[in-house]
Amino acid sequence: MVNRYVKYTHRKNSTKMKKDEKDKEVSLKNVITSDRKYLLSYGVSGFRVLDPAVMSILHGDEHQRANMFLNGFKTGKLLVREGLVTSLESLQRFLFENQIMILDIYKILDKEIELRVYESLRVSGLPNIGKPICHYETGLFKGVLQEILDKKVKVRETKCKAQGYPYCQFKVVTKYYDKL
């Protein structure tokens, strides 16, 4: 029954793409704000089945973890370059408004920042699997902060909900925080 509905809905909503729409530049902003007319919501459990970070833990794939970090890093840089994020506070707002995660700027000291993530799409509700899995988020924070600060930063996940902690925590280290 569901399959017939999906096929019908897809056919009903499908129209020929106009030439100017086809040639439209693909940007992160366009992807984020795209119209999802005929995509059924599959929820968090569906996301996790498709999530490479969770699957890499189950299969022990180190290359996938590195790819997740790199993809997060590139996305973080794009968020800043396309003007979607201009500061740590705007990143916090962006992530919340797009229902990705709740980011807490927990501590800002001379040479380090501590970020805490609550209700992350990736790890909320997961059982304790004993390993951190927020490789994408680590890369995302690194990409955003390097672009904002115009300095090299080091980001490390020090706690993860997938390890049984009540939140994921990230430590960011650099020499300058003038632009935060």
Describe what you observe in this structure:
With 180 residues, the chain is of the alpha+beta class. The chain has a domain of 119 residues: Trafficking protein particle complex subunit 3 (Muramoyl-pentapeptide Carboxypeptidase, domain 2, 2-Layer Sandwich). It is 46% helix and 14% strand. It has a four-stranded antiparallel β-sheet with strand order 1-2-4-3, covered by helices on one side. Helix 6 runs parallel beside helix 8. It is globular and about 35 Å long. The N and C termini lie far apart (52 Å). It comes from Methanothermus fervidus (strain ATCC 43054 / DSM 2088 / JCM 10308 / V24 S).
Topology of this protein?
Blueprint: H1 2-13, H2 19-22, H3 28-32, H4 43-50, H5 52-59, H6 62-81, H7 88-97, E1 102-108, E2 112-118, H8 135-149, E3 154-159, E4 168-173
Antiparallel strand pairs: 1-2, 2-4, 3-4
Domain 4-vinyl reductase 4VR: 112-174
Protein name: 4-vinyl reductase 4VR
In short:
This protein is α+β, with helices and mostly antiparallel strands and 180 residues long. It is 46% helix and 14% strand.
Characteristic terms for this protein:
single chain, Muramoyl-pentapeptide Carboxypeptidase, domain 2, 4-vinyl reductase 4VR, alpha+beta, globular, NO_sig/Golgi_transp_ligand-bd, V4R, 180 residues
Computed over alpha carbons, the radius of gyration is 18 Å
Largest sheet, strands/sense/barrel: 4 strands, antiparallel
Helix content: 40-55%
The assigned CATH architecture of the domain at 62-180 is 2-Layer Sandwich
Spatial strand arrangement across the major sheet? 1-2-4-3
> How far is the first residue's CA from the last residue's CA?
52 Å
User: How many strand elements?
Assistant: 4
| Count of separate DSSP helical elements | 8
Strand content: 5-15%
Arithmetic mean pLDDT: 75
